[in-house]
Amino acid sequence: MNLNEFLHMGGYAFYVWTSYGIALLILLVNIIAPARQRRKLLTDIARKARRARREI
Amino acid sequence: MKCDSLTRAFTLLIRRDLILAMRHRAEMANPLLFFILVTSLFPLGIGANPNLLQAVGPGIIWVAALLAALLSLDSVFRSDFEDGTLEQYLLSSHPVSVLVLAKVLAHWLITGLPLLLVSPLLGVLLDLPAAGIKVLFVTLLLGTPVLSLIGSVCVALTVGLRKGGMILSLLVLPLYVPLLIFASSAVDTAAAGLPVTAHLSLIAALLVLALSLSPFATAAALRVSLS
Amino acid sequence: MFNNFFHKMASPKYFYRIAGSLIPWLAGACLLFTLAGLYYGLYLAPPDYQQGESYRIMFIHVPAAWMSMFVYVVMAGAGAIGLVWRIKLAEIMVISSAPIGASFTFLALVSGSLWGKPMWGAWWVWDARLTAELILLFLYLGIIALHGAIEDRRTAARAVAILTLVGVINIPIIHFSVEWWNTLHQGPTVTRFDKPAIHISMLIPLLLMAVAFKLYYAFVVLMRARCELLERESNAGWVRELVESK
Hints:
- The complex is a heterotrimer of chains A (56), B (227) and C (246).
- Chain A has 56 residues and is mainly α.
- Chain A has 2 helices and no strands.
- Chain A has one domain (3-55).
- The longest helix of chain A has 43 residues, at 13-55.
- The radius of gyration of chain A is 23 Å and the shape is rod-shaped.
- Chain C is mainly α and 246 residues long.
- The two termini of chain C are 32 Å apart.
């Protein structure tokens, strides 16, 4: 089986690769979103703590 | 003695709600009018072919009943929440689930019962055969309390929210799916002249299940919403 | 000792730390299983004698559909624990799981539709399982919407726990009713394939992908739970220490 044939998926390429692509997209978004959120939360909390210290 | 006072609280609560409803008759009529209006819009939308109407009639009536129930649900706890009566229920010495059951029963008497009573009329409008109309009545008799019971849980969860209406429909409608399926296919089957005992037993089972579980869920939900 | 472990796990600080150290391992294992599953499923497994290559969508669709149920059951279990024993972490698990469960459900629907088009000739068929999956998606969306609408996080988590429990009682009923409805209104376009026992060469990638999806859920839910914890406890001492140590 060569690469072309593999990508062709016996004529079902569109359906097979779209569903795998969408799966990859959804799964990646679900990983990236909480990772970014956590970083944002940590910087927010750090900023708040710094501000509180300056006020004292 | 305690049991006695509980029965008294139960009946008093129902009486109070009925009196309140009678004082706002216009509000009470709204879901009913909505039910009739939606059902009569369908023939205008899809054409008045009697065969077509007969085929889709049970589904239309039941979907309209679900929407009318949804529309009326907001009023179950709304006014009690706004004037603080709801907190009094939670503080009272009676089990909240019983008080909730009284509220739901009153709500059914106010909104479900009128809907039930006009349903044969709508059946005639949609050209359902006599057998179908009879079964439609029975399914609504067994089904509308289920609508109120399941709805009360979701309403209790959203009662404190300012924009609870949209969310309420998202919460309630998926839970209504089994009832819609059983009820409308019961009417379909009856209209085709086949026996419907199985369908009706399933709806009755749903009623028993909702009756035995939902008051507790509603009570728990009210406690959370008011905490 | 066992008791002690649970006590430690239930404290936010330890949970945050342990979850943080577990995530890379789970993610790595998930990646390994995914690669193995993809290699097996897309390359080694032979084409199906009826459906040709299109059946390979199964390796996404079926695990996603399994996970959509599994996540809901986990949520209901965690919700019950959270309501009965008032364990904060259980509540956090419920709400952290909801978006992941909704994603799996959505994925199952989309891949089912993409599989259905070449097999049934239509993008959407009111097939019993697809319909039940659609209603499950609505249940998930309701949970997410309710959580978003309630301001107070504790109240929101407990309301969501109750809603999840109501839903979990309803799911078997919904499934039954939809199956039943489907047998009554069998659409004429639906062609049913006879169901031969699945061949071992297709079962292995299916199971590999199922394990990969489970691992994926495990590490993503921990990631989300860590965020939720940080947000809830942003004023707690351990969070400050954590931030300052960086």
